[in-house]
DNA sequence: ACTGTTGCGGTCATATTGGTCACGGCCGAC
DNA sequence: GTCGGCCGTGACCAATATGACCGCAACAGT
């Protein structure tokens, strides 16, 4: 299992997106694009055909919004057919019950569109590590082994952060902003979190640049206009 | 979802073990024992009956070795029936393909028999946290939110002691931290225990990673922020 | 209406401090 | 005696505060 490439089926109705996923796959070592299906029934047929041909699919990149069936339905039918093929969900839908259903359907990763190549690669590499971890031993010898394997599947490996920003501070700023109902200025963030104005601004600017925050100037007071930031919902 | 207890069905053919699991459940807040099934078909009937009664089961503690069906088969049939009930597998079997199948069947945790109450409680508490995290927001607003929810489900809190850490020193650090009323920095641990800052940090970081410690940066002074640690109660 | 003044936040360079890493030494085990 | 595991050392890296300076808008006086 570990000594051959992971065969991936792309299930995606939009041709452009499907091609993009396939192109992404080619850039990763250890994965091979084994085909594309444009709707749910085609996906199920392709999976069955691959089994019949003795080259079963290892992993499905499944778009949740398909023309005929919902991605979750396709997943359920796969399970009902006894397939243990792993599934990574790709979706623009962020509804709660979809996530819950995904967990129950045995979906190993959940990618929200739009995503960057870095995010895509991270999720797939995590999955590859998970397989390697399982393959490296013939049996789970202890609870710890199982926990580690599961963890390698689901522990987020933090995405590259620009220099000068720390994990903890960034989290604190985000957490603070999420709880605000009105836009806040960098001074307010400084006071509330006990950090300096300069530091507060660095994080706010970064979040605004990456699109997580709305930024707008605030007039009416003496002095240079003050930028105020609001969490984008 | 978050404001009521989690209804749990115990599926276990050995009466003694089933009773033990139920007793364990009673000791945990937020969980309620909703019934016991002695084999696979009984489990499926109980699940359907609970749905019909308007009190669906939230979680199944499923033994894998049942007299009639394998636990994985029961899980697959649940999925085929459209149930999104979560499943925690309990098994003495450690074979690889069982673990792989469990992932595909949407099994959220995997407990290996025999286990202690502490291990049992840890897995269930993790699951409870996962539910709370999902319930705390109406929709997943970002990839990070989804990642965090998945991580809270499967991050091991039971990491083996990594290399470079000794039993004795670890115990000393824990003992010291337990007696502190305010968070301490690695420098303070260094001074008090007479070990180097690097060593102190190794242990503090490990404990923080495993969830035994809370870690937060301390601002207000020039220089890189200092992490302070507090024993989590 | 124009202009200088004032006040406040943005910007930048620098000092400061703790985190991080690689290496080496010591001690116990086999 | 050698090897491996644990810890300390010191150099380097990273993240923050500080303070001086700049820019912009309001305000007041002419």
Automatic annotation (TrEMBL), chains A, B:
SUPFAM superfamilies referenced in this protein's UniProt entry, alphabetically: CheY-like, Winged helix' DNA-binding domain
Q: What is the protein's given name?
A: Transcriptional regulatory protein
Which controlled-vocabulary keywords does the entry list?
Activator, Cytoplasm, DNA-binding, Phosphoprotein, Transcription, Transcription regulation, Two-component regulatory system
- Gene3D superfamilies (UniProt xref): 3.40.50.2300, Winged helix-like DNA-binding domain superfamily/Winged helix DNA-binding domain
Spans annotated as Disordered: 211-233
Q: Where is the Response regulatory domain?
A: 7-128
Superkingdom of the organism of origin: Bacteria
**Where does this one sit in the cell?**
Cytoplasm
Location of 4-aspartylphosphate modifications: 63
What is the protein's major site of localization?
Answer: cytoplasm
């Amino acid at each position: 299992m570990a000594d051959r490439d992971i065969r991936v089926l792309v299930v995606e109705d939009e041709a452009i997106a499907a091609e993009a996923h396939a192109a992404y796959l080619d850039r990763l070592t250890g994965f091979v694009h084994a085909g594309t299906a444009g709707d749910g029934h085609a996906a199920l047929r392709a999976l069955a055909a691959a089994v019949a041909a003795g080259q079963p699919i290892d992993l499905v990149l499944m778009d949740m919004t398909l023309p005929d069936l919902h991605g979750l339905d396709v997943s359920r039918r796969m399970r009902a057919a006894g397939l243990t093929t792993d599934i990574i969900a790709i979706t623009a839908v962020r509804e709660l019950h979809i996530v819950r259903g995904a967990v129950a359907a045995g979906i190993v990763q959940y990618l929200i569109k739009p995503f960057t190549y870095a995010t895509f690669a991270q999720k797939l590499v995590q999955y590859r590590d998970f397989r390697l971890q399982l393959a490296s031993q013939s049996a789970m010898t202890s609870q710890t082994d199982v926990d580690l394997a599961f963890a390698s599947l689901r522990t987020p490996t933090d995405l590259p952060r620009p220099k000068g920003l720390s994990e903890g501070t960034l989290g604190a700023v985000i957490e603070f902003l999420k709880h605000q109902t009105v836009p806040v200025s960098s001074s307010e963030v400084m006071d509330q979190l006990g950090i300096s104005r300069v530091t507060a601004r660095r994080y706010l600017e970064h979040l605004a640049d990456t699109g997580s925050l709305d930024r707008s100037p605030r007039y009416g007071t003496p002095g240079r206009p003050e930028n105020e930031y609001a969490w984008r919902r």
